[in-house]
Design goal:
Strand content: under 5%
Helix content: over 70%
Mean pLDDT: 93
Oligomer: single chain
Distance between the termini: 42 Å
Number of strands: 0
Structural class: mainly alpha
Length: 244
Amino acid sequence: MWFMVRSIQIAIGFLTVFRTHLEPYPDMTEVGRSAWAFPLVGALIGGILVGVDAMLAPRMPPVLASVLVVSTWIVLTGALHLDGWTDCWDALPTAVSPERRFEIMKDSRLGTFGAVALITILAVKASAVAGPGISLTELFLAPVIGRGTMVLAARGSRHRGDGMAALFLNGVDGEALRWTFILGVIPAILAGWSGVFGAAAAYGGAVWFRRFAESRLPCVNGDVLGGMCECSEAVFLIVASVTW
């Protein structure tokens, strides 16, 4: 029980702006072992988003309400994965060496590709949330599915050295993957076939993004993992928006 509580605290502290006081402070390998709790943090985020949407949607235009919901999403996560998404798109499309792409990803300045990618994904999310096709259940599930499929799709990815991503991925063991699937993918059935198709597509999107990154980098880093999460969430929302 103590291990479970600590893992949840680690996941909350790592994935959100909510601070948890842990002794001893976890290293990235322990964060990897706690990855099974990432979907639970997604559920925390999703629950808050549902509450914000339920409060705002009846009182203001749908587009404005959706922009505020997505803004809340960004604030809750500290733009953690968005930062990785933009860094990846600044670096991956460029015609330079893999090592130079790593240098670009470490640059805090936002380039043209990154800016376009940022605008695009925020527009996709806000448009999806504003649309009539998204239910509160699907809005709740989006951050759950995003974090679950990110962990699952990262399995077997190339990583090296003692960087944050390498240590994290070394810590993600079979037990963490099993519980990530149970907590991060199976709940998609709450949204019916739309949720099941959305979860499958989200996993496919995360795998595609990882392989795209691996084709241009010698290994996966933390920015790529963040980009996988953002891609997965966006794909899930797109599928959920489709009228079946």
